[in-house]
Amino acid sequence: IIHNNALMIGKIARFTPLYFVFMVIEGLIQGAINSAAALFNYELLNAVDEGLDFARAAGIIGAMALFYTLAFAFHKWYWCIVNPLLRQKLHLRMHEELFVKSRSLDLACFDDPAFYNDFVWAMNQSDTRAASVMEDTGKLINRLVSTGTLMTLMFSVEPIIAVILLAVSAVSIVANVIGDRVGYSYSRATNP
Questions:
Q1: What are the tens digits of pLDDT across the range 23-47?
Q2: CA distance readout (Å), 124 to 29, 58, 119, 185
Q3: CA 50 to CA 2: how far, in whole Å?
Q4: What is d(CA 188, CA 156) in angstroms, rounded to the nearest whole number?
Q5: Is the pLDDT of residue 127 over 80?
Q6: Do the Cβ atoms of 26 and 138 come closer than 8 Å?
Q7: How many CB atoms within 10 Å of residue 60?
Q8: How far from 159 is each of 15, 121, 149, 155, 163, CA to CA, in Å?
Q9: Which residue from 66, 125, 128, 189 has the fewest beta carbons nearer than 10 Å?
Q10: What percent of the chain has pLDDT over 70?
Q11: What is residue 58's three-state secondary structure?
């Protein structure tokens, strides 16, 4: 599955490089948003413990407000304006490749019901699967950035809790991989 996803990401990067780049940026920004929340709370609570003055509290809160405003503005701009356009471009490029491939095939191939079903299934699934793989890649980047930040923060505060969270994360990753395999098997089994 990982090999197939890597091939799909390569096709996406070749067909719509901006979609690939923006999805990576979106993953990094979402990871930074998640990380910033933890760091913000850590800094603010430590500052309160140290007898925080109003100017320092306002500075911390102002920096976070500015960061969140810019990050969420990018998020809305990307998902409401840019992403739909890039997905449409990807859709057109994927279908174009499938049509070009179908022109080179012998017409007798289309008389074979199994081939025809697979071809129609590929046409129907091509762009949605590709977008799903790319969005999952963005989520993976998000989770890696968030996990890295939180683990670093947790190791600096309480190493035992950090080890427990790391173990839970590993179990979650394994469960997701198994779930993806089951979903793929189910999808292939229910293919008409």
A1: 999 999 999 998 998 888 888 888 8
A2: 31, 53, 9, 18
A3: 48
A4: 46
A5: no
A6: yes
A7: 16
A8: 44, 49, 14, 4, 6
A9: 189
A10: 99
A11: helix
Q: How many CB atoms lie within 10 A of CB 66?
A: 10
Q: Angle at which helices 17-49 and 83-103 pack, to 10 degrees?
A: 150
Reported as a single tens digit per residue, the pLDDT across 65-117 is 999 999 999 999 999 999 999 999 998 998 888 888 888 888 888 888 888 88
d(CA 166, CA 147): 8
Query: What is the structure's pLDDT at 192?
Result: 64
Q: Which two tokens stand for residue 150?
A: 């939180």
Q: How far is CA 1 from CA 6, 7, 154, 173, 178, in A?
A: 9, 10, 32, 14, 10
Q: What is the distance, to the nearest Å, from the Cα of residue 14 to the centroid of all Cα atoms in its chain? A: 18
pLDDT tens, 128-145?
888 899 999 999 999 999
| Total residues belonging to the chain | 192
Q: Where are the alpha helices (DSSP H) in 52-112?
A: 54-77, 83-103
Q: How many C-alpha atoms does 52 have within 13 Å on its Cβ side?
A: 15
The answer to whether 145 and 33 have CB atoms below 8 angstroms apart is no
Provide φ and ψ at 53, rounded to 5°.
Answer: -90, 165
